[in-house]
Amino acid sequence: MNSPRDDVLIVGGGVIGLATALALVEAGRGVRVLDAGRVGGGASHGNCGTITPSHAPPLAAPGMVAAGLRWMFTPDAPLYLKPRLDPALWRWLAHFAARCNLGDWRQSTRSRSLILADSRDRLTDWVGRYQLQCEFAEEGLDYVFREQANFDHYARECELLHEFGITSEIFGGEAYLRDEPALKPGVAGAVRFPGDARLRPDRYVAELARALRERGGVIEDQCQVESLHESADGVVVATDRGARRAGEVVLALGAWSPQFANGLGLRLPIQPGKGYSITYSRPLVVPKRPMVLKDRSVCVTVWDSGFRLGSTMEFSGYDTSLNAIRLAALERGAAEYLHEPVGATVQERWYGWRPMTWDDLPILGRAPRHRHTWLAAGHGMLGVSMSAASGQLMADLISGRQPAIDPTPYRMERFL
User: Which tens digits make up the pLDDT trace of 272-319?
Assistant: First the structure.
């Protein structure tokens, strides 16, 4: 049965789609969210749940091309490119490589820092206002190093980050170990970002959905969107449950956004960057705060309800396999640092596709050459961290209100 005409349809029930929906409902708009699977079942589900203004620097950085070439044929490397013939991937990589310079690094870092800082502050407000039960804690995040040269490099980079309002604290290895009994000896040093936070991402998404429904938003899961057509006064979305009509539509499909946008004549420069995680029962001895084991690029997050190892970046297309080599690299990296690197029980082994743009900035705003279609995609590894700001920015733009941050750096037009 066809639905009545909605005010705003949001295609995609991940963290960005739900955050946008909630902000729109708060702005007085009527919202219906459509998701082909279950809400929050994509990249929102199994990431490490860190809220990280500290991660403003993009993946495209000076020296990354050389590192990527070294790692290309190393299946357990932190960044892995599966060799294959894929013209879209190679075009993406060419643009990515062209941005691995200091000028573009600074431009992306500045734009990422603005949306991350806004989202960090807004998330604290949302947790309180909507009573989001998601194990949110404002306890900072630590980068921990066993390799002295790597520690020295990041300590120098922290001086650059101060320009973007990102504060940090530097610890020598012995001083850090005195306060962190979960770590083995041999730490060269650590960098703390006190402005970071953490939450349990699957619970955060579930709580966004609850808050949305309580305020009158509608969520239809298991509803496959097949096509979209604009009319003079809105949009018609064909689904496997019949047509859905609305005044506006927001495409928030994560790594699947390019396939759908192709049907609208839009080429979104997004590649799926595959990430992995393993969730365990909580060990007896755990770190006091989230940490990134930087020499091995392994993120460690602790909640009352569990313990997770995650990270890695794999460009292998839409490969649906769980790569045992890369999962083992997470455990092996953690074992170098932690007395108790895993919990007694494995609760979940997971992968998800991050929607990666070559400049590591999201695509937010009205779709070019379309009156009623909006894009909210391309958040890379930081969808959860950027969610509150992205949702509010989209709601402000759709409602014609002055946004809190300048939307210009995130518009699709930068790629045209």
Answer: 999 999 999 999 999 999 999 999 999 999 999 999 999 888 888 899
In this prediction, residues 91-101 reach a mean pLDDT of 94
Q: Which residue type occupies 219? A: I
Q: Would you call 156 exposed, middle or buried from its count of C-beta atoms within 10 A (0-12, 13-18, 19+)?
A: exposed
pLDDT at residue 160 tops 50: yes
Nearest one of 50, 30, 18 to 252, comparing CA atoms? 18
Please give the Cα distance from 115 to 172 (Å, whole number).
Answer: 31
Where do we find the tokens 């979940």?
348
Q: What is the 3-state secondary structure (H, E, C) of the chain?
A: CCCCCEEEEEECCCHHHHHHHHHHHHCCCCEEEECCCCCCCCCCCCCCCEECHHHCCCCCCCCHHHHHHHHCCCCCCCEEECCCCCHHHHHHHHHHHHCCCHHHHHHHHHHHHHHHHHHHHHHHHHHHHCCCCCCCECCCEEEEECCHHHHHHHHHHHHHHHHHCCCCEEEEHHHHHHCCCCECCCCCEEEEECCCEECCHHHHHHHHHHHHHHCCCEEECCCCEEEEEEECCEEEEEEECEEEEEEEEEECCHHHHHHHHHCCCCCCCEEEEEEEEEEECCCCCCCCCCEEECCCCEEEEEECCEEEEEEEEEECCCCCCCCHHHHHHHHHHHHHHECCCCCCCEEEEEEEEEEEECCCCCEEEECCCCCCEEEEECCCCCHHHHHHHHHHHHHHHHHCCCCCCCCHHHCHHHHC
What is the distance between the alpha carbons of residues 256 and 254, in angstroms, rounded to a whole number?
5
∠ CA 45-53-98 to the nearest 5 degrees? Answer: 90
- Spatial contact of 398 and 8, defined as CB atoms under 8 Å apart: yes
Q: How wide is the angle at C-alpha 20 spanned by C-alphas 15 and 24, nearest 5°?
A: 150
Four-CA torsion 85, 91, 96, 98, nearest 10 degrees = 120
What pTM value is reported for the model?
A: 0.95
- For the chain, percent of residues with pLDDT exceeding 70: 99
